[in-house]
Design a protein that fits this description.
Distance between the termini: 81 Å
Shape: elongated
Helix content: 25-40%
Order of helices and strands: HEEEEEH
Number of strands: 5
Number of helices: 2
Structural class: alpha+beta
Radius of gyration: 22 Å
């Protein structure tokens, strides 16, 4: 016979399993966002994963405090040093991705000086 206590324990276990399944999906989305960001910033994501750090209230882009998961990851530029990074996830939506200070290779087009007059003429 099913008692109210047994039903409560069963529902509690099912809710925990659903929460863990949902959290795994959010972690996968965080990993995909971090991979895209690392490619864009021309750094290498190490170990190919993100690790859960904490839950907390974090300000979003509008300045409102929202419940968020913070994941950490490591990346490298030179292949010799590990640097830390973090991503904030508001539910299934990514928030800010932060990378620790790290060295970077300047591209030739980044080092070129553009005169303001030339730039203004180009936009006209």
């Amino acid at each position: 016979m099913v008692t109210l206590g047994n039903l409560f324990v069963f529902l509690l276990l099912m809710a925990t399993a659903a929460w863990l399944w949902h959290a795994h999906g959010i972690r996968e989305r965080a990993l995909a966002s971090v991979r895209r960001h690392c490619t864009k910033m021309e750094v290498e994501l190490l170990d190919g994963n993100v690790a859960f750090r904490r839950l907390g209230l974090v300000r979003d882009a509008r300045g409102q405090r929202r419940f968020a998961r913070i994941y950490g990851f490591e990346f490298t530029v030179t292949g010799e040093q590990r640097h830390q990074g973090s991503i904030v996830m508001f539910g299934a939506r990514p928030g800010a991705i932060e990378l620790d200070a790290h060295p970077f290779q300047a591209r030739p087009e980044q080092g070129r000086v553009i005169q303001m007059d030339d730039w203004r003429r180009r936009d006209d």
